Amino acid sequence: MNLPRLRRRDDAAGAAAGPPPDAVPHRAGDHLFPNGMIVAQREYTQRVRTRAFLFGSVLLMAVALAAALTPVITRVMDQQLATKVAVYAADAGLSFDPVPLIRNSLNGVGGGSGVAADPSPGSSAPSPSPAGTGGPFTYYVVSPVPDLARARADLLAGTYDGLLVVSRTTDGDVSFEFVTDATPGGRSATYMGQAATAIALKDRLERLSISTEGQARLFAPLLFDIVPREPGAPPEQSATDEVSRSLTGNLLVILIFITVITYGTWVATSVAEEKSSRVMELMLSAASPRQMLFGKVVGNGGAGLTQYLGILGAGLVGILLQGPLTAMLVPGATSDGASLAGLTPGVLVVFVVFFILAFALYSLVYAAAGSLVSRQEDVQQVVTPLTFLSMAGYFAAIVGASAATAGWVVFLSYFPFTSPYVMLVRVIDGSVQPWEPLIAVAILVVTIALMLVVAARVYSAGVLLYGQRPTLRALISAARISR
């Protein structure tokens, strides 16, 4: 193992007294630089050259790219799973094309179905694409067919899921026959009945010589306001937007959780590895425990940030490709509206800040815990409680996402060991004031400063602890030693 070329400490600074048997002393003039950065460079270089790091980076970048393209994949699947309906109306003698009306009615274009979705002049409902798949959620693909016999053959062959035949009765009214295997009382039959009602109503209005302008006034949208129960309260999110924000929050929280567990274990394992090989004793002759603690946290943190820059880069590429891929793979769709709700530049800034602070806080604790064991096999024993602590923050964020204003959720969003998870979810949900994340960040920074002092004390005692079982009492005793 290559040892760093550390600058030797000034022997005169500590020649008056030898180190106590329980800890390496803090010497006068014990500055973090340059030895701290030399240790950090060594940790960074060794970490990024491993096969596990390279393989894990590639795997996580692929996952990030796939996650960013999830909205596109969802829309493509929507088109594949859409119900295909053929419409034959040549024998009905209608004065208008019923296909756009049926298409809008089935897919709820304009926020409704049936007659509320009538695309007559003056109506607020947008016109669909020629392919019938222009909306963000197209559940029915409606196509006109000129040949009834061919349409019935295609229906039997599975090309269509249903066939609507429009004709006229002896008294001149329109009649409908819906050929399908769907349940008579199911969703498809119900929606098709609403579409048929819209067609019949429009035909009857025209037979009564009601002008197009009159029909437009008849179908004009109503003035219907929704007022919150509490004045000034924000409106509830739509189901689609709520699911999208939940997915965004889960993805970002999982990234922080994986960071804390993976990179924190790196730090603890690195300390235990050097202790088991006795390299630690050689390094202590040139670098102080405080310098080594700083170097390990910064070095492994730099390796983690390098990996996450690749992950965020892959995610950014996926976000940029959402629009073009949506327009290319979904017929008639535009390049807008494919991104995840809640994934804004402000949210990304908050995520990066909490990501860095969460890693710094947990890495200090992991480094101190790793110094208490002498073998790499014992690392899991000391990091398990820390893993449970991080899991508590993760699950609190997942559960608290549905009750972001609850008292316990608000408290955990300020508690330093859980705030990187919970506060991030609350920011994405939009249930916080602008000053709340700033307070959580300030509390985190103060906690990290205090943890640096405690971790340095534990580390100074732990690096010389060989062959002893780490206990909570020993940890507290080491933290109380003043150097």
Could you walk me through the main structural features you see in this protein, from its secondary elements to its overall organization?
This protein has 483 residues and is mainly alpha-helical. It is 58% helix and 5% strand. The protein has helices spanning 35-48, 51-68, 70-81, 98-107, 148-157, 187-207, 212-218, 239-276, 279-284, 289-329, 345-370, 379-400, 407-412, 419-429, 435-462, 472-480; strands at residues 83-88, 140-144, 162-168, 174-180. Strands 2-1-3-4 form a four-stranded mixed sheet, sandwiched between helices.
Mean pLDDT: 74
Unreliable stretches (pLDDT < 50, length at least 5) are 8-28, 110-137
H and E string: HHHEHEHEEHHHHHHHHHHH
Q: Could you tell me the number of beta strands?
A: 4
The secondary-structure class comes to mainly alpha
User: Could you give the distance between the termini?
Assistant: 30 Å
**Count of separate DSSP helical elements:** 16
Strand residue content:
5-15%
Strand order of the largest sheet: 2-1-3-4
Main sheet summary? 4 strands, mixed
Provide the number of structural domains: 2
- Rough shape? elongated
- What radius of gyration results from the CA coordinates? 33 Å
- Helicity, in percent? 55-70%
Topology:
Blueprint: H1 35-48, H2 51-68, H3 70-81, E1 83-88, H4 98-107, E2 140-144, H5 148-157, E3 162-168, E4 174-180, H6 187-207, H7 212-218, H8 239-276, H9 279-284, H10 289-329, H11 345-370, H12 379-400, H13 407-412, H14 419-429, H15 435-462, H16 472-480
Parallel strand pairs: 1-2, 1-3
Antiparallel strand pairs: 3-4
Helix pairs in contact: 1-10, 2-10, 3-10, 4-6, 8-10, 8-11, 8-12, 8-14, 10-11, 11-12, 11-14, 11-15, 12-14, 14-15, 15-16
